Amino acid sequence: MANDQTVPECDVLVVGGGINGAGIARDLAGRGWRVVLVEKDDLASHTSSSSTKLIHGGLRYLEHRAFGLVRKALQERELLLRSAPHIMRPLRFVMPHDPGMRPAWLIRLGLFLYDHLARREITPGSNGVVLKGHPLGVPLQERYQRGFVYSDGWVDDARLVVLNAQDAQAHGATILTRTRCTSAQRGPDGWTVKLQPTHALGAPAQTVRARALVNAAGPWAAQFLSEVARSDQAGPLTQHSLRLVKGSHIVVPRLFDHDHAYIFQAPDGRIIFAIPYEQHFTLIGTTDVEVPTMPEQASIEQDEVQYLCEQASRYFKRPVQSADVVWTYAGVRPLLEDASKDASAVTRDYVLETSDRGAPLMTVWGGKITTYRKLAEQAATQLGVLLGQAGRPWTEDAVLPGGDLSAWTQTACAGPDLGMVAFVSQLQARYPWVPVLTLRRWAQAYGTQIPLLVGSAQCLKDLGPTEVTGLYRAELRYLIQAEWARTADDVLWRRSKLGLHLTPAQCAHVAACMARLMREEPTASERVVQGDHLQRQLVPGVQVDHGA
After folding, report:
1. Helices 157-170 and 473-483 meet at what angle, rounded to 10?
2. Exposed/middle/buried for residue 201 (C-beta within 10 Å: 0-12, 13-18, 19+)
3. Using one digit for the tens of pLDDT, what is the confidence trace for 274-321?
């Protein structure tokens, strides 16, 4: 722009709307910094919606002696389960013992360490189990006589990203989805960044000036540094590189009736999970396949489908066939390159690489969902130091949007799953005219934000037409206005998994409805194109409290 005074300014611009980018934006905004987050697609479009949906310490990491990572992950598991009990819950895992693989004493030792490496207040400890004649053993082949049971957690990964973005916005951050960072020029005291909306044909680019830049582009982190970021200083922008490992999953009709998950040991040393999923299904994963370059959209290969079916069939009585698969998904993990020959052995820990040769630059290398909050906290502290004032960490005891169930139940829940029954009961009392199944789904998606969805509605008719069973026009409007949803995929596969339960015709109907609503109610990102939204949010010279 010709007139520099018209260029919006911020303290930190974060590139990447996955879990790390959203978490960093949230932490920084909560410390008082002016933050802009840009994501070229939808929030959690790629890796962060393609996980195995687990909040876990990483039991298998003990074999690689990654005790520090396991301890950190176990600590975070406890914190996260408290922060968003509507989208997370403890989950018990059954490990059938295969005498031909890891010896029982080694497994018992590993589980003892897993129970005691970090303080446990929510999840119960491990124990042995006789599978013969036990409900947990019913789906398994007769040769698995004994096993072990231990605890981890389940999470709706894509919703976790959205909740972090919501909290970032509530603390003053600007969230721009479907906006590509096309160039970032480093100067001695700031970055000049060009942003191009991708959702509106012919939309004008915008220029933003940021005091610091965060590269949280996940699998595209190295590409961003080589193709987008430019520095007026000599030398490379990084000393690290990524190892891209694709993890694929399959979903099949429910293989067992109980609420535990299974963890299986494959002959090649990999771990395969079989997890209850969306009431009527079982989720099986994951693979570890190295990919040379980041594809725009990762997809499962047929040999991966066959591999997962074969490994599950080694344990279940009823063989799992490729014809059983109703849905698949794949994501690319951006793992920090190390000397490991086996992709499954590459570290899941993270590195925050900072450069202050000119305006501050931070690149996030690696990481996992379980440790995202700690990563964000450390990133915000380091960035604050580079900007002149670190600010106080604040997220350890903070609740994510919709997660304070005690405000409804009038009790401090001892665990994240204990308040859900009481919460749903309160919902039924307040909204007796909403079907129970819809209320339960809302409870596990929106938590205490449900009144924002319902608004002033007093009956089902007030929620608008039923687009498909249990999905009302009011919910679509809420997702557009409050959660950056723009397409049917955003709604059916990331904000929810309703797509699993619908026919192609029903999905097409939702797509048509979303298109109509988008023409009527543009999102905040679209309003940037239409006016001076970003300029008004990021007024240069605004005094902020940096949490000192």
Report:
1. 60
2. exposed
3. 999 999 999 999 999 999 887 778 899 999 999 999 999 999 999 999
Average pLDDT over residues 456-479: 96
Note the pTM of the prediction, 2 decimals.
Answer: 0.92
Task: Tokens for 344, please give them.
Answer: 């499954």
Question: Which two structure tokens, joined as six digits, stand for 104?
Answer: 């029982």
Q: Note the pLDDT tens digit of each residue in 193-210.
A: 999 998 776 788 999 999
**Do the beta carbons of residue 459 and residue 465 sit within 8 Å?**
no
Residue 355, beta-bridge partner list: 361
- 206-215 vs 9-15, strand pairing mode: parallel
- How large is the greatest C-alpha to C-alpha distance in the chain, in angstroms? 77
Q: For residues 92-113, give the mean pLDDT.
A: 89
End-to-end CA distance of the chain: 35
Sign of the dihedral defined by the CA atoms of residues 459, 512, 452, 402, in that order: positive
pLDDT of residue 416 exceeding 80: no
Amino acid, single-letter form, for residue 517: L
Helix (H) or strand (E) holding 374: helix 372-387
Domains of the chain as residue ranges with CATH: 4-46+159-240+348-398 (3.50.50.60), 88-151+242-337 (3.30.9.10), 406-527 (1.10.8.870)
* Alpha carbon distance 254, 281 (integer Å): 4
| Residue 411 or 462, more confident | 462
For the chain, helix (H) and strand (E) counts, in that order, are: 16, 21
φ/ψ of residue 316, rounded to 5: -80, 145
Please name which of 543, 510, 421, 530 lies closest in space to residue 202, comparing C-alpha atoms.
530
DSSP designation for 532: -
pLDDT over 50 (residue 508): yes
Inter-residue contact 57 to 126 (CB < 8 Å): no
Neighbouring CB atoms inside 10 A of 540's CB total 13
Helix (H, G, I), strand (E, B) or coil at 72: helix
Pull the structure tokens for residue 163: 């909740």
In a 10 Å sphere around its CB, with 0-12 CB exposed, 13-18 middle and 19+ buried, how is residue 268 labelled? exposed
Q: How does DSSP classify residue 269? A: S
Residue tagged 């089902």 (tokens): 460
Residue 403 carries which side chain, given as an amino acid letter?
A: G
Q: What is the DSSP letter of 204?
A: P
